[in-house]
TrEMBL record, chain A:
Span of the signal peptide: none
Localization: Membrane
Keyword Phosphoprotein found: no
Transmembrane segments: none
Organism: Lactuca sativa (Garden lettuce)
Gene Ontology CC annotations of this record: membrane
Protein name stated in the entry: Calcineurin B-like protein
Function as written in the Swiss-Prot or TrEMBL entry: Acts as a calcium sensor. CBL proteins interact with CIPK serine-threonine protein kinases. Binding of a CBL protein to the regulatory NAF domain of a CIPK protein lead to the activation of the kinase in a calcium-dependent manner.
Entries under SUPFAM superfamilies matching the protein: EF-hand
One of the protein's GO biological processes: calcium-mediated signaling
Keyword Repeat: yes
InterPro entries: CNBL1-10, EF-hand-dom_pair, EF_Hand_1_Ca_BS, EF_hand_dom
Pfam families: EF-hand_7 (PF13499), EF-hand_8 (PF13833)
From TrEMBL, chain B:
Enzyme class: transferase
Catalysis performed (reactions): L-threonyl-[protein] + ATP = O-phospho-L-threonyl-[protein] + ADP + H(+); L-seryl-[protein] + ATP = O-phospho-L-seryl-[protein] + ADP + H(+)
Family assignment from sequence similarity: Belongs to the protein kinase superfamily. CAMK Ser/Thr protein kinase family. SNF1 subfamily.
Biological source species: Lactuca sativa
InterPro entries found in the cross-reference section: Kinase-like_dom_sf, NAF/FISL_domain, NAF_dom, Prot_kinase_dom, Protein_kinase_ATP_BS, Ser/Thr_kinase_AS
Enzyme Commission code: 2.7.11.1
Protein name: non-specific serine/threonine protein kinase
Binding site for ATP: K42
Protein kinase domain boundaries: 13-268
UniProt xrefs under SUPFAM superfamilies: Protein kinase-like (PK-like) (SSF56112)
């Protein structure tokens, strides 16, 4: 396995930490990232995880610095719950890398579509439901829309996506819906990860 | 078997024959075994870059090279290292050095020289716009690919310490600092971008003349000539090329022509080749309607669905905010308005025409805006689309179809935004328009 320049420099400086390099190499083999990229993500992770409590983990409160509005706080909490694969209330570096891997430009689109479904499946019951969406929508808005207008938008959207007419969107319907609106996937790819 | 695998560099590349030797590095032809694709592999011995500062500078430059993807710049594909060596895997450029065309006293026709010079300036401009200057433009670094297009190489070394670099330069085959700007030779602080322009001037001269503008057996005399920008034009140089070269080879960097200046020179602009690799994907969808007037049947804009609303109106799920440094501001490209879709389209068209863009209405609610000037990555092409969000509320979204991102940002910030000020309700995604962190509730797991 070739070692990146950056790691070589680390070696030169302090004869490195072989355990860490093996750890990174392992992550690289299981995700879309190269070792260099994982190293860079580790720097980012350290910055985030040291925001409030310095224990090398990301806590829910760590996200505060980039959730400047109530709407973004809700988004952060949703993301946090998905990133926290082990459901133990903290995000470890492994979980961070594996979740971000889905945002890599080379990650399969089907993974992105499924991940996005989970963002909106707020009850984790396999459906995007109309009332969940109302909640999300209303809290997101910083545009002046009346409740009626929000309801109208939702009705039209459900009508468009709900193929079997049960009033909610399941994963299969979601998979058919997204390709019609490709711009929805924009946020699911971070060009910076390359 | 094991043994064989070991021989592959980085587990992927087969090293072929030596194709070049520099002061610090050897360059080999290589092949990616899985694809059979040719690459160039530059190998640097770590003993020669032992000094830690230098290693760090190499790293900086690697990231600089990653910033600059351009059809006239050799692409750096991968970097890896072993205990003793650093390997740069680069795009393989098959056509050899540009200067093979003028070696032995041959020279190029003005049209041919201009084409290469245009490609050189396009690449250099692109780098400068990304804050990277090459600082070592010279014959060995200008290559040609199979299509006879110019490729600049060796960005990875531009920031190596000057002492060593110029010492290195003195020992290259041409044996002279003939391409180096006077202020660089003086070893004072200098502007790398301006120094690059000088070097481009020397390159243009050499292509047209077949020999160097500054040459002298005696190194002291050579330096003196460069400091004073003392050179002569061969009789076959046209008045236009004389004028341009005298602006490029201006000893005082402050008075030297800028890239914007070069872009305005008629001789330079002539037959400027459009970089085909920058052509937008728009071509594929373009179906110019010969009778747009007859197509007035669509009466309402497309509907903006709930998910589009969520993902575009708030940047909550946009993780790129994690990676951005604070000072970098993202350009808002979407606004809401209480004006009618038709009124908005009219205003966008007028604004774009006012900026000398070509405007084409695709349907009633989609406007294509095309730049007339060749930008850094071809002309700018933008689409503006109006969606219906709710009664009396429309969303307008701008997307860049092709062209340079920085130019697009300027188009939005300095053109569109002020021009549409009075019809905009809010711009979405503006940084700084948030309501402050005060209302956020801490909810630690």
């Amino acid at each position: 396995m070739p070692v990146s320049i950056k790691e070589c420099c680390c070696f030169l400086k302090k004869i490195g930490n072989p355990r860490r390099i093996i750890h990174f190499a392992l992550l690289a083999s299981e995700t879309s990232f190269s070792i260099n990229e994982i190293e860079a993500l580790h720097d980012l992770f350290e910055r985030l995880s040291h925001a409030i409590i310095e224990d090398g983990l990301i806590h829910k409160s760590s996200g505060l610095r980039f959730s400047a509005t109530a709407a973004r706080t809700i988004c952060w909490q949703i993301l946090f719950d998905i990133f926290d694969i082990k459901k133990n209330g903290v995000i470890e570096f492994d979980e961070f890398v594996r979740s971000l891997s889905i945002f890599h430009p080379d990650a399969p689109e089907s993974d992105k579509i499924e991940f996005m479904f989970r963002l909106y499946d707020l009850k984790h019951n396999g459906f995007i439901e109309r009332d969940e969406m109302v909640l999300a929508l209303l809290s997101e808005m910083n545009v002046d829309l009346s409740n009626d207008e929000v309801e109208a938008i939702l009705d039209k959207t459900i009508l468009d996506a709900d193929l079997n007419g049960d009033g909610k969107i399941d994963l299969e319907e979601w998979k058919a819906f997204i390709p019609k609106y490709p711009s929805l996937l924009n946020n699911m790819t971070l060009p910076l990860l390359r | 078997m094991e043994e064989e695998k070991h021989m592959l560099l980085g587990g992927k590349y087969e090293k072929g024959k030596l194709i070049g030797t520099g002061t610090f590095a050897k360059v080999y032809h290589g092949r990616e075994v899985s694809t059979g694709e040719s690459v160039a592999i530059k190998v640097i011995n770590k003993d020669q870059v032992r000094d830690q500062g230098m290693v760090e500078q190499i790293q900086t430059e690697i990231s600089a090279t990653r910033l600059v993807r351009h059809p006239n710049i050799v692409e750096l594909r991968e970097v890896f290292a072993t205990k003793s060596k650093i390997y740069y895997v680069m795009e393989y450029v098959s056509g050899g050095e540009l200067f093979a065309k003028v070696s032995g006293g041959g020279r190029l026709k003005e049209d041919v020289a201009r084409k290469y010079f245009q490609q050189l300036i396009s690449a250099v401009d692109f780098c400068h716009s990304r804050g990277v200057s090459h600082r070592d433009i010279k014959p060995e670094n200008l290559l040609l690919n199979g299509n006879d297009d110019l490729k600049i190489t060796d960005f990875g070394f531009s920031a190596l310490p000057e002492q060593k670099r110029y010492d290195g330069l003195l020992h290259t085959q041409c044996g002279t600092p003939a391409y180096v700007a006077p202020e660089v030779l003086r070893k004072k602080g200098y502007d790398g971008a301006k120094a690059d322009i000088w070097s481009c001037g020397v390159v243009l001269y050499v292509l047209l003349a077949g020999f160097l503008p500054f040459h002298d057996e005696n190194l002291m005399n050579l330096y003196r000539k460069i400091f004073k920008a003392e050179y002569e034009f061969p009789p076959w140089f046209s008045p236009e090329t004389r004028k341009l070269i005298s602006k490029l080879l201006m000893a005082d960097p402050e008075r030297r022509i800028s890239i914007e200046g070069i872009n305005r020179v008629p001789w330079y602009r002539r037959g400027i080749s459009r970089n085909s690799s920058f052509r937008s994907k728009r071509e594929r969808v373009s179906s110019p309607d010969p009778t747009p007037g007859l197509k007035k049947s669509i009466s309402s804009p497309s509907f903006f669905n709930a998910f589009e609303l969520i993902s575009s109106m708030s940047s909550g799920f946009d993780l790129s905010t994690l990676f951005e440094s604070k000072e970098k501001k993202k350009v808002a490209s979407m606004f809401t308005s209480k004006f009618s879709a038709a009124a908005i389209v009219e205003r966008i068209e007028a604004a774009a025409r006012g900026m000398r863009f070509i405007v084409e209405t695709e349907d009633d609610f989609k406007v294509r805006i095309d730049g007339t000037e060749e930008g850094r990555k071809g002309p700018l092409a933008v689409t503006a689309e109006v969606f219906e969000m709710a009664a009396e509320m429309t969303v307008v979204e701008f997307t860049k179809d092709s062209g340079d991102t920085l130019e697009y940002e300027r188009f939005c910030e300095e053109g569109i935004r002020p021009a549409l000020k009075d019809i905009v309700w809010t711009w979405q995604g503006d940084v700084g328009s948030s309501n402050g962190a005060g209302e956020v509730t801490v909810n630690s797991g």
